[in-house]
Structures are given as structure tokens and as C-alpha cells.
Amino acid sequence: MSSTYGGQGGDGVYHVGPYGGLRDWLSLHRVVAGLVALAAVATIPFGGLNKADAGRYGGLARVEVGQAYDAGPWRVTVTGGRLLKDQPPLRAKKKTNRWVIVLATVEVTADETRNDTLDILRISGAEKLAGDEPDTIMLRSDYSLLPALHPGLPEQLIFGWEQDATAAVPASIDVIIWGKTLRMNSLTESEEWLDHGERAVLTVPVQDRRNA
Amino acid sequence: MSAPQPPYRPAAWQAPPPAYPPRLGRPPHQLHGAPTDHTQPLPTHAPQPPGYGAAPAGYPPSPRPAERARPGWWRRNWWGLLLVVPLFVATIAPDLGDAYDRWFPTGPTERVSGANGQWVSFGGGRLRLVSLQRAVALRTHSGRPVTLPATVQVWQATLEIDAGRDAPLEGCTLFLEDARGRTFSANPNELSDVDVDRVYGCSRPYGGPESGPFTIVAAFVASSAPSAVRVTLASELPRYAWLTAPD
Amino acid sequence: MNPGIRVLRRVGSWVAAAVALLLIINLGNRILEFQRDTRYFQRPFEVSVAMGETKLTRTFGVAVVSVRGAGAITDPTGGVPHGTNGIWIIVTLRATALDGPREIGHYSLRDARDRVFWASDRVKQGIHGGRTLQPGVWIEGEVAFEVPRDVATGKLTVLLAEHRFDTRVDSMIAVELDGVTTSAVDTWASDRTATLAATTVIE
């Protein structure tokens, strides 16, 4: 090892301080490489060396069309997907919009009536939607809008998202079932349905019935 | 070991303690060392230095603590007890203002009223009760006669209001008040199908004068005879206007 | 006494006091951990009333007069019949306010399994949802609930309170319904022509 900082100087005397050897060895390249290696090692406890997820929803449960999934306060069975033109009882906010529809049966398994039906489903894979939340939710039986759902009474629901007419026609969409967890709210110290988030995903074929 | 020994007892348990020699002012073992009592035989071991506290062997045992002249519990803790008072005040004082704001001004408790039928200044304007009359022979919007139980009376209050376009008074709420202080709200559901005037707070009616004082007619149902019209405004609470009809 | 022992005793008493304090705090925390949740502690004060009996709360008076059921119901104002996957339970009640204009905001049914069903939002309700009660003016009207048929196997209770959601430590009228039996439900389910009665002023 030779450097201008350590080793034998021009005066013939060794100048090796307590860190002389280390200082010798350090260089910008080595420091950077060392920090990168350290950062890589630090990610290991957080899954740094795990196999990469298979796509965006790799961490979620996979379910099939027609298969019930328990997502906390509700049990959801997605039964199909449709593409519809704007027609009663649907009423698009923008006249030219069409509707991406998800049909699902939802049963409230919590012990009290729920009116957070907007929190149940999201979709992905359809372009140019008006928003993330469904633009309408109706009962299939009498088109009651945004109905509250009662425990133990499964209901067939229509979830509708407005889609711009210029968007590509989706052949299938990913439907993500969101759930909640009943746990103690540390602020109010009472049991509440919290942690609203994605729980399961399924790919639903979309039947184009715009001309039906 | 031969004769059975009496069970061991700490010296402090033995009662009563033997009397001290009369010339000793206090038990020799107490605070700040023991003065040597030369009337007693010398202890077998070397005398301990003063300030060490323990009575040399051969001294009478300690008296029981209860027999010492100790101040009472209240005397010993008076400063602590005294401290409780300011601590208690300090505990609740920061919230007193908040508690007052939360509970006191939220209800109508301060009546603002004038002579019967006279103007009362309130909410950036003034208003008065022109008349308070029982309505009879009412009809529905479709012209059918209204049938209400005999115990239910319909009253109509005519108010004159003098307030600027943007005066807070516009957002008032009108109540009919009976002699017992019970209140009845304007535009009741009971009259939803009945052909009577409806009021929208104290706002200027459509088709009324564009400026200057205006008149509104509020309809109420009541189960007893009314005594006044109560006018509340959220921003004026706890003050409220209390209007009585002219004599 | 040996001064060392005296210091020890003094320190010991402080330590004992500190330990006692910590124990008390710890005990309090344990009690808090074992408590049931705040919702339980702040639950409404339930006043049990029999059907037909009039009960006054702090702010309103109410009596449950009768109960019926149907497989489908129509609004008082007409429209399409609303079917159900369960059974419609229709409760007739009388109500008035006490001191000033009030609403009964909370109408729900509780079954034997402690499931709570809010009054239905699928039909236009007359007495539930925005009806203001005037003091001393009694009205009579119907409230419709949509419930699974299996509620008939246990007791079914109507719950009434002033505020729809915030019922904490408020008074709540609880009226156990008579006559909601499995056979009654079977009979009701076949009735698909029921109409909700309009709300009337009775006194």
C-alpha cells in the first residue's frame, strides 16, 4: 500500500497514525461501493432478496368469477362484467360516456347495516374512467341507488364506472375487492371497521352490450 | 443449650419500658448520640463515638414509637394537603373557558324583547310582531278542506322586518312559544300539504319590496295557546329575540 | 439506631412509595386493557317498553302500536313495489316531542343475535327521515325495516333515539315486538301488495 498520507515519507520516518492504514485504503470509489453494498444488505429484512411480485396485484388473494370472498364487513361474489351505453336507470354525468359495469352479490357479515357500499370494489384495466370510486351503485332488483346493505341479506348489486367514449374497449378488467378490519381505534378506543384496503383481485371478462 | 429459651421478641415489643433514671431528660439513645450515663456499669465493649445513634448494650430498650410525642397526621401533612387546592384549580382551570364556550352560549338564554308589538333590535336589523292569529278554514293545495284534530291549532304570525340585504338576521329561525316555554317550529310537516305561507328564515319574500321593511307570515301548529314568537340566530346566541303581539 | 439503617429506612420508604405508585398505575392500565371498548361504556341508556305502552324520554314521547310484515311494499306516494330477499317488517308508532321541535333520528331493529338493521332507505318513509315532531302534537306513522327471515326465530326489538348515529349515553327506547313468529313471517312473505300508510296527525 502506498500513498502520500501513510507509509514512509520523504524523511525516512514511517507516519502511521492509529487510522493510517484505513485512511490509506479508503477512496471515493470504495466508499460509494461500500455504501451501496450496505444499503443492499439493509433491504434484506424488508424483503430485498424476495422474488419479485408477479405484477401489481401479486400480493393479493386471487379469486375467480363466481367465487365468494370474505373481505371483513362484507362477503363479495363478483359475477360478471358489462360494457353498456348510457341508458336509464343509469345516468352519466357526461352524455357521451359509456358504462363499465361490474355485477356482484354482496352480503354484509358485520353485525350492523352498512352504508359504505362505495368502499367495496375498484377496477383496473379500463382506460379513461371518470374516477376511482364507482359512479353509481344500484340494487339489481329495483335500481335503488346507493342502498344501505343489511346484515344477513345478500343483495345483487350493479357497480358502474363512467368511461369516456374515446377509450379502448376493455375485453377484461381486474376487479379489486377492498376490505376492512374490525379493530380497536386507538384514538377513540372503540372497535371500528378500519384499514380500508385492497384484499383480493380477480380478472373479469367484459361483455360488450352497448348494442343489446 | 439446656433450659428452653423464651421466644425471641424485639426489644421494642416489650412493654412497659422500664423507667429511666429521673435525671435523664430523654431516653439516652435518641437523636444525636447517647450521652453516657455514668451511674450505669460500663459496657463490656468499647464506647462508641457520639453521633452513632445506637444505645450501648445494657441501656433500657427503646420505647415504642407510639409513645413518642409525634405531631398528628394532619400536622405532618398540612403543606401537602394545602398543595392539593392549587393543584386542583390548576387541573381544571385551563378547560374552564372551553367548557363555558361549549355549554353556556349554545342555548337561547338571554331574552331580548320590547313592548308588545314594538320593534326589537336583533342580528343587525330590527323586527316586530304585527299579529299572531289562529288560522281557520284552511284548505290543501288541491282545495280540499284541512281536517286536523281539535287539539291541534294552526297559528299564523305576521312579522315586519327591517334589515339590510346581507344582515345576519336573514338566517334566523322562527319559533312559536307557549306559556310553558315549549316551542313549535315554522313550516311544520303537519302543514306541508296545506295552503299557507312558508318562510325561509327571515329572508325577504319573493315579490315583496326590493328595499326597506318587509313582511313575512309564518305558520305553526301548536298544542296550546301561544304567548310569543321566538327568533334565534346561531351567531347571536345566547341572545334571542322574544316578540309579543300588539295589545 | 444506627444512622446507616436510618438512611436505609428512609430510602426504603421512598422506594416503597414509588413501587406502590407504579403498581397503582399499572393496575389502572390493566383495568383499562380489560375493559370492553368505549362503545360499550358509552352505550345508550335503554328503556324497555312493552308494545302499546307510551313512554316519554328526555325529549320525545313514543308508543309502538302494532307490527305487520310483507314480502313487498309500496311507498305511500305510490311507485313500484319493493321486493326483498328477506321480509319487510312494518312497525306502526305514535310520537310527539316534549319541549320543542324534535326528530326521532334513530330507528333500528335488533334481533336475538344482536344484529342491528336500520330502517330501510329503499322506500319513502313517512315518520323516519326528516319528520319534525311538535310538542304535544301526536302523529302516527309507519316505519319499514328489511331483515332476513331468520330474525323471527328470536326476539326482535325496535330501538328509537333522538340522534341517528350518535346515540352515546343518550336515552333509547327499546320495544320488543310481539307476534313476529316464523309462521307469521311465512304468511306475510306472500303479501306483495302492502302499502306503507301515510303519516297522520292524531291528537
Instruction: Please give the number of β-strands of chain C.
Output: 11
Using CB atoms under 8 Å apart, which protein chain pair has the greatest interface? A-C, 21 and 24 residues
Task: Give the averaged pLDDT of chain B, no decimals.
Answer: 79
Multimeric organization = heterotrimer
Average per-residue pLDDT of chain C, rounded, comes to 91
Task: Give structural notes.
- The complex is a heterotrimer of chains A (212), B (247) and C (203).
- In chain A, 10% of the residues lie in helices and 36% in strands.
- Chain A is mainly beta and 212 residues long.
- In chain A, strands 1, 2, 3, 4, 5, 6, 7, 8 and 9 form a nine-stranded mixed sheet that branches.
- In chain B, 13% of the residues lie in helices and 23% in strands.
- Chain B has one helix spanning 73-103; strands at residues 110-113, 120-122, 125-134, 153-163, 173-178, 183-185, 214-222, 226-232, 239-243.
- In chain B, a hairpin with a 2-residue loop joins strand 2 and strand 3.
- In chain C, 22% of the residues lie in helices and 37% in strands.
- Chain C has helices spanning 3-34, 38-41, 182-189, and strands at 45-49, 55-56, 60-75, 78-97, 106-110, 116-118, 139-147, 157-161, 171-176, 194-195, 200-201.
- In chain C, strands 2, 3, 4, 7, 10 and 11 form a six-stranded mixed sheet that branches. In chain C, strands 1-9-8-5-6 form a five-stranded mixed sheet, with no helix packed on it.
- The longest helix of chain C has 32 residues, at 3-34.
- Classes of the chains: A mainly beta (212), B alpha+beta (247), C alpha+beta (203).
- The B-C interface holds B 29, 51-54, 148-149, 151-152, 175, 178, 181-185, 188-190, 220-224 and C 1-3, 6, 98-101, 131-132, 134-137, 139, 199, 201-203.
- Chain B: Residues 1-25 have a biased composition (Pro residues).
- Chain B: Residues 1-67 are annotated as: Disordered.
- Chain C: Keywords: Membrane, Transmembrane, Transmembrane helix.
- Chain C: The chain crosses the membrane at residues 12-32.
